[in-house]
Amino acid sequence: MGATSCGNSGSNKETDAEALLLEEAIDKNLSKDEKKALSAALDDFGIDFKEKGNQIIKTSSALGSKNIEIYTFKGDKCTGYRIICTMPEAQAKEVYEVYQNTLVNVKLDGNTVSGDYNQETLDLVYGSMTKAQIREKVKQEVEDSKQLLKSLKRRK
Length: 156
Prior knowledge:
Layout: H1 11-29, H2 32-42, E1 46-52, E2 55-62, E3 65-74, E4 77-86, H3 89-102, E5 104-109, E6 112-116, H4 119-126, H5 131-154
Antiparallel strand pairs: 1-2, 2-3, 3-4, 4-6, 5-6
């Protein structure tokens, strides 16, 4: 989402504006029953961030699915990015097929799919960033998502 940092006084205004645009699109395109289902689904959304040892972990959940993104560091350098997704089994098979083309060490175990960035992708995406920069980026993603969700829930 395009919201600014939480320290910026414009952050909530931008998040509210995004939520308002989304709400207008929902009003135009969804039936009353679809809106009711969407409103109920908002209660299932969650996102969190934590640091554990040499890792930064972002966890998000929505609509019966859960994603865990794990950034691993050696000193200040990001040396690994792993994603673990748990979802309905049929959807997991589809995601597995996509991940086969984009990640390495891809595994499908029932309703859980996991995989890693290869070194080239890791260097391209995170090679120029320090651990502190990645931490702030992930924290900002989590905060922006929480603010947008909070704004949407106020409009339920």
